[in-house]
Amino acid sequence: MLFKDSCNRKSNQQNLGTIKSSNLCTEIIEYTSPTEAAVCNLADIALPQYVREKDNISQLKKKILYNVKKSSDLLKTTVFNSQLDLQLLKKLRVSTRPQKAPVKATVKNLAFTTTYYAECYSIIESLYQAADLCENV
């Protein structure tokens, strides 16, 4: 159960107004209004799988961001009042699932650092692509 006062005190969306609802699992708390629907894209990474298989977690994060961007474009046209929210806030949550076998803290920190830099790289890359499109117009 969530309490409205404590959620609004801790929210990074305080500047938008009072938050009155959350998603079903209460992990996401977002501002909504009559003109704006709250939209957040979620993705989970099974971290131990990528540690064992030695797959490039940075490439996975880039794929996740690419797919989220594509789904956001689809939502803009299909979900009523979601366009404003998607354009202004661009919310995304990529998390790791808890596993039975413990993953050492250093490996976990390294994975989070890697995914953070991959996310920054993808955002910068998309800005360059948008700038190229603007130059061609």
From TrEMBL:
Ribonucleotide reductase large subunit C-terminal domain span: 1-62
A GO term, aspect molecular function: ribonucleoside-diphosphate reductase activity, thioredoxin disulfide as acceptor
Any one GO biological process: deoxyribonucleotide biosynthetic process
Segments traversing the membrane: none
GO cellular component, one term: ribonucleoside-diphosphate reductase complex
InterPro entries, alphabetized: RNR_lg_C (IPR000788), Rrm1 (IPR039718)
Pfam families: Ribonuc_red_lgC
Family: Belongs to the ribonucleoside diphosphate reductase large chain family.
Record's protein name: Ribonucleotide reductase large subunit C-terminal domain-containing protein
